[in-house]
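Batch manifest, entry 17 of 40.
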Amino acid sequence: MASPLRIAVVADIHHGKDNFTKKASSALPLMSEFVRFVADASPDAVIDLGDRISDEGHATDLVLEREVAEAFAPISQPRFHVCGNHDREYLTVAENEAIFNQPMGHRTIDIGDWRLVMWAADTLIRRPGGFVLTEADLLWLAGVVATADRPLAIMSHVPISGHGQTGNYYFERNPDSSTYPGAERARAVLRQAKVPVVCVSGHVHWNTLTTIDGIPHITLQSLTESFTTYPEPAGSWGLLELGETINWTVFGRDRFAVQLDARATAQRWIAPLQPFHEHPERRLQRLTVAAE
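Output type: structure tokens
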């Protein structure tokens, strides 16, 4: 039996000025703690789910991103980054790529028995308009799912679970900004997978597990968020262990742990029932009652 694949994950670092409940000024000291954790845990890979900075303007954001890149530099393990919406407010994907010296578009990486899927769906927020889930992003994901010959660990900044936001400081009253419009189309793509699948995202600044069609959708708390740990930042990062069992552990002040049978994540559910009033059996029952 192969050893589980071990991945250290950090999300929503938000280096910059304190803003709302984000303790952004604590980002670099907390990154030092994360780097020490990686050195001790010695994972097979490290993944950054985006929103590395709290954006201020083009010139300032270039400086902030470079400072985060310097914070990641001591890590010797393979590192993979995606862009979050704050990384894209004033900067292009190309500028982010140049700072971190790696591509930040869609890509897959086979490590051990699993395939890491860096799904770099567009994270630029249009004003007005919000997020846009492009056809090209969906088609790329569909291609990965259709050709999968091993389990998939899908990483993205924005979650596609569409899970409820009740209690979330940012998104309870702004649920449309917590996911993509048309996210159900991405979930329909994943439903076609014949292999185990796990999805891990950031963006929403809390720890959640939502299972849809047998697929676990996990979100990771922000490194610097404080609304669940006020007045201190959560200082959160995760360790994902992928083998016959999927183990997810979040460290810091906002701890969270999940253990799942990987094989069960390949078992799809029966499609949801239509609205009760549209169900043929209910219509027949109403007609029978009316006839009597």
